[in-house]
Amino acid sequence: MGISAEQLKFCLDAVAAIEPAMARAIDRAGYPPPRIRDRGYGTLLRTIVGQQVSVAAAQSIWKKLEAGLGDLDNPATLAAVSIEDMRPFGLSRQKASYAHSLAEAVASGALDLDDLPADDEEAIAALSSIKGIGRWSAEIYLLFAEGRADIWPAGDLAVQIEIGRILGLEARPTEKATRLLAEPWRPHRGAAAIMAWHHYKVDMAVV
Asked: Assign residue 40 a region: left if phi > 0, alpha if psi is -120 to 50, beta otherwise?
């Protein structure tokens, strides 16, 4: 379960009390809606399927896989087939390899999504040990599916752009700078990231 609307408001109000620019951003764009995904294997598999393709294309591939192979929310489904068995349904060899690795890790118990480490960095390391799950994907999963309130995806381009705009910086901050800028906002950085994406959409709509 991700961060609820009530939690988002509480966390953002706490950040706004520290950073007046965030308060002005909330006044301009309003509070963001929750971004919640289901916890578990299916969400991570959808992340792999959706990499570098449109939402519509990802949905099409998912439906074809499901029709051809069975229940995709059960890791045993893909763990039981070969990489080549997945290729006819629209997955590249690389994505099929990633999907197979994830399925095997979860099916074997090597990755226990019901008992990830409580420490955020350790949880990110556990998730990103799987081929195809990088730091960004791990952070998004922990933020949206587990509702970990202090996850800060500083490598996300939209977060960098919008934090720079919100804070009135002349140039987009680097990942390292974005990480440092948010240090005073602990333990509410996850809500700040969701606010950055929301603010980015508002800015794009205005343009």
From this structure: left
